[in-house]
Design a protein that fits this description.
The chain is about 55% helix and about 10% strand. It is α/β, with parallel strands linked by helices. It is elongated.
């Protein structure tokens, strides 16, 4: 089918036609940026092909940006954290090269686990959220949750006979970020339900956790030693372990501010 070009349209009529066509075809970026890009094309004497390419690239870039924003919102992060804002100088225990390698998300692609272990205020949650955000921006489905919140949700789902659906929902995301693991003791039932989620994801999809307890101290969270050992095995096999140390960055900042 040969499309006959339309001749004789005024500039105003052409702009109106572009606006209407973009609405029908759902091209919001082209619709909003068309006047500016058309003026730039005229000034720079761009060819028709170059001008069309600029329009389509602008639309594709904006769609990719919006998809990333939707994935970040869907992850449920409690606050915005980025690797750019992380102060590596304040915590010499953390190797910037290792973190930036993790930011490439190759470990998420391979379905490997990540453990961030250290005292409160050493940057665990910051790194967890920042790396989760990097994964969302790279196109992966990410979900963030607190350990206690996840366990409570699983217990409620089990009581409502919805456990399989809930575990399957957590199993579908590419990266599950579990924060504050080890802050509170879990009863046997809660620990077993958490173990089911980890087993569902084992060697298929990544889990990243942040904990203020070393692995030897996890027996305070998971009181059954055999279950505790099995959970540690699920979260460490083939994965990365980052120890953020014991010196609180937040406390150091507070003291510095008081002294100033």
């Amino acid at each position: 089918m040969t499309v006959k070009p339309r001749h004789g349209l005024t500039e105003q009529a052409a702009d109106a036609a572009v606006d209407q066509a973009c609405r029908m075809l759902r091209l919001p970026t082209i619709r909003t940026q068309f006047p500016e890009l058309a003026e730039a094309a005229a000034r720079e004497q761009m060819s028709y092909r170059d001008f069309l390419a600029e329009l389509l690239i602008a639309e594709c870039d904006d769609r990719a940006r919006r998809r990333s924003e939707r994935r970040i919102r869907a992850a449920g992060f409690p606050r915005e954290k980025s690797l750019r804002a992380f102060d590596f100088d304040a915590n010499p225990n953390i190797d910037p090269a290792v973190i930036h390698t993790l930011a490439t998300c190759d470990w998420v692609k391979k379905g490997l686990p990540l453990c961030l272990i250290g005292d409160s205020g050493t940057g665990k949650s910051h790194l967890l959220i920042a790396l989760g955000t990097e994964a969302a921006m790279a196109g992966y489905r990410v979900r963030y949750t607190l350990a206690t919140k996840l366990v409570n949700e699983l217990v409620e789902a089990a009581d409502d006979k919805q456990l399989s659906k809930t575990i399957a929902r957590y199993g579908r995301v590419d990266l599950l970020c579990v924060d504050e693991l080890g802050y509170m003791e879990l009863d046997r039932r809660g620990a077993e339900l958490l173990f089911q989620v980890l087993t569902e994801r084992e060697e298929k999809a990544s889990v990243a956790i942040a904990s203020n307890e070393s692995f030897s101290g996890w027996t305070k969270t998971f009181t059954d030693p055999r279950l505790c050992a099995a959970i540690v095995d699920r979260l460490t096999f083939g994965g990365n372990i980052i120890e953020t140390g014991t010196d609180s960055y937040r406390l150091a900042q507070t003291r510095a501010a008081q002294q100033a």
